[in-house]
Amino acid sequence: MFCYQCQETAKGTGCTIKGVCGKTDDVANLQDLLMFVLKGISVYSAKAREKGIENAEVNKFITDSLFTTITNANFDRAVFIKRINEGLKIRAAVKEVCEKAGISLSGTLPECATWFASTEAEFDAKAPLVGVLTTENEDVRSLRELLTYGLKGMAAYTEHAYNLGFEDPALYAFMQRALLATLNDNLSADELVGLVMECGKYGVTAMALLDKANTSSYGNPEITKVNIGVGTKPGILISGHDLKDMEELLKQTEGTGVDVYTHSEMLPANYYPAFKKYSHFVGNYGSSWWKQKEDFETFNGPILFTTNCIVPPPVNAKYRDKVYTTGAAGFSGFKHIANRENGRMKDFSEIIAHAKKCAPPVEIEKGEIIGGFAHAQVFALADKVVDAVKSGAIRKFFVMAGCDGRMKDRNYYTEFAEALPKDTVILTAGCAKYRYNKLPLGDIGGIPRVLDAGQCNDSYSLAVIAMKLKEVFELNDINELPIAYNIAWYEQKAVIVLLALLYLGVRNIHLGPTLPGFLSPNVAKVLVETFGIAGIGTVDEDMKLFLN
Ligand code: FS2
Ligand code: SF4
C-alpha cells in the first residue's frame, strides 16, 4: 500500500504498512483499484456525455465510490470488493451504450477501460499495481493527487446534497473529466494546476448546492445554545455529516422513549429549526471524532455513523457491538443500515430497539455550546458586526475552520485561540472547533468570540460572509478585509474547502498542523508563491505575524 491522502500520514510522507488511521494494507490497495475502475468508467461516460447522453447510475456510482475512499469513512474490505465488481459491470453497460449510440471507441484505450477480473484473488493481485506511485514524476503525481483528493471531498458534499434531492450535472461531468485528466500524460504542469483551480470552482458549486439543500430542507441555522449534558432516557448517538439521516432518525425515534444526541461533526444539526422541534433531541454528547473511544464507552447506547470519521475500536471496546454505519461509512463487524429505496425512509428500527436495552448516557460534562452562525444568521446581525468593526471593538476575524485530529501538535489551535486578544473573533466550521469551542472566550458586545457556522462544508458560509463584508466595506479585494486564515486540515474534505477558498481569491492561508505530504517541494513552492499558502509556526510567532 501507499497512501498519503491525509494529514496524519506516516512520517508526513506516506503510510506503507498500515494506515495510521487503521486502514489495512489490502483495503488501501482495493481503494486504489476502485479508483482505477472509476477512471475506466469515466472513459466511456465522458464519450457518451459528448453526445448528450447522461447516465444517472454512473454519476451516482462514481460519486458514492469516491466518498467511500475518504479517510476514516469505510474500512470494510467486502464493500470495496462489491464496488469493484459493480463498477466493472457499470463500465460494461456504459460501453454498450456508447456502441449502440454509434460512438467511436477506436484508438488506444487506457488499461483501466479494458482490464477485467472477477475474483477477489485477481483484485488483490492487481490492486498494488495501480496505486498512487504508478505516476513516477513526483510533481505530476502531486498535482494529480491534489486534484483527486479535491474530487473526493467534492463527492462527499455532492452526495449529501443528492440525498436531499439536489443535483447539478456539471459536478458529475467535472468529476469524471478530472478523473480522466489524471490518466493523461500529455498534460503540462500548468494545465494540471488549471484543473486544480477548476476543482476549486466546482467545490464552491458543490458547497453552495449543499447549503441550498440543507437550508431549504431544514431552515437556516440560527443562534443556539446546545446542551452538552444528558437526559435520563437511553439514547442514540449520531455522528457524521448527513442531515437526511438525522431527520429520519429523529422522526423514527419520536415517542419511543429513546433520546437522540449528536457527536462530532453532527453537532451543527442542533442549529437547524426543523430539528429543534423534537423534544427528544437532547443535545451534543462528547467531543471530536478522535475522542470517540472514550465518548462511546460512557454513552452506553448505540452509535450511528452516517459518514467519517470512524476510528477502529479497540478489541476489548465495550461499545464494539453497538456501532452501526450507513451510507458511505462502513467497518467490518459493524452493522450497516441499508440505503433508502423507492422513496421510503431508511429503517432505523434495529438501532432503536437496541437503544431501549441500554442504560442512559453517563454525564461527562454539563453546560452549553453556542453555535449557529451560518451566513443567514450572521447577516441578521450584520449591523452589529459592522458597527463593532467600525468602532474598533472587533479588530480582526480569524477563520480557524477545518478539521481536528488526534496528534498532540494540534494543541497549537487551543493555545492560539486562548492567546488571541479579546478584540478578535474566531470564525469556525468543521470539527476543528472542538479545540476551543468549550473555552470561556466571552463575547464582544453580545457577539460571541467563537462564531461556529456548522460542519466543514459550511466553510462556504464563511466565504459568503467574507464576500458580504467586502461589499459592505466597499473594498476591491476580499484580502483587504481584517480577516486572517489559520486553517487546520485533516482529510480530503478540507482539500476541497481549501481549493474553493483559493478559487474565491482568498490569499495567505496558513495551513496546519503540517503541510500535506502529497505536495511535492515544487508544487508546494507554486502554492506558496502564487497563493501565499504558508504553514504554521509557534503560537507566539504566529500571533505577532497575524496581528501586525
Ligand atoms: Fe472532521 Fe472527520 Fe468534516 Fe472531516 S469529523 S475530519 O470528516 O469532514 O471534518
Ligand atoms: Fe495513512 Fe491517512 Fe491514508 Fe489512513 S488515510 S492510510 S492515515 S494517509
From TrEMBL:
Keyword vocabulary terms for this entry: Cytoplasm, Iron, Iron-sulfur, Metal-binding, Oxidoreductase
Entry's localization field: Cytoplasm
A GO molecular function held by the record: iron-sulfur cluster binding
Keyword Iron: yes
Keyword Metal-binding recorded: yes
InterPro entries attached to this UniProt entry: HCP/CODH, Hydroxylam_reduct, Prismane-like_a/b-sand, Prismane-like_sf, Prismane_a-bundle
Protein's name according to its UniProt entry: Hydroxylamine reductase
Species this chain originates from: bioreactor metagenome
Gene (name only): hcp_10
